[in-house]
Fold this sequence. Notes:
By secondary structure, the protein is of the alpha+beta class. The chain is 23% helix and 24% strand. It is built from 3 helices and 4 strands. A 4-stranded mixed beta sheet has the order 1-3-4-2. Mean pLDDT is 75; it is low at 1-5, 8-15 and 42-48.
Amino acid sequence: MTQNFPPNQPYPPQQPGYQQGPPPGYQGPPPGYQQGPPPGYQQGGYQQPAPSNVPHVAPQGSPYPVLVSTMNDLPGYTAEKVFGEVFGLTVRSRDFGSNFTASFRSLGGGEVPEYTQMLAESRHVAVLRMCQMAQQMGANAILAMRFDCNEIANTMSEVAAYGTAVVVQKVEPPRVQDSKPDEDDANDS
């Protein structure tokens, strides 16, 4: 499945300490990795979402095809339709060399970049898969997004992203009424 994302522009606006893009040291997906859900992720497999009249609300430059928010509601928008829970899941394991290097780093204390990179990549993949599931339902946003992380057999890390798929519409502010009478109204007196 191919996806067209908007050009990579800063979002949110540049702030001190904010870094746009993938985490430092990210080298892309491993060989043989296919973006998207694995076969059998959903009964009948994945299908391309049907074209609809749902407005695109994801910010320009966002790495995700739908708007993803950790808030329960979205200021300036109203939820027109609720589809329900969506999730994305990935399970990762570091190779022997990275585990060996990380074990030596852990002796000295401090950050272990090998695991930081793996978890950052896992979160990104989990959110992308969640967004794909929401798109298939016809949603244009995900609200109340959360992460869940677990360890499996002391060798693998599972990361799940989940939230509520919705269709949101921008709320139009009320028009300001003109307080001055029209010329036609003044001439009628």
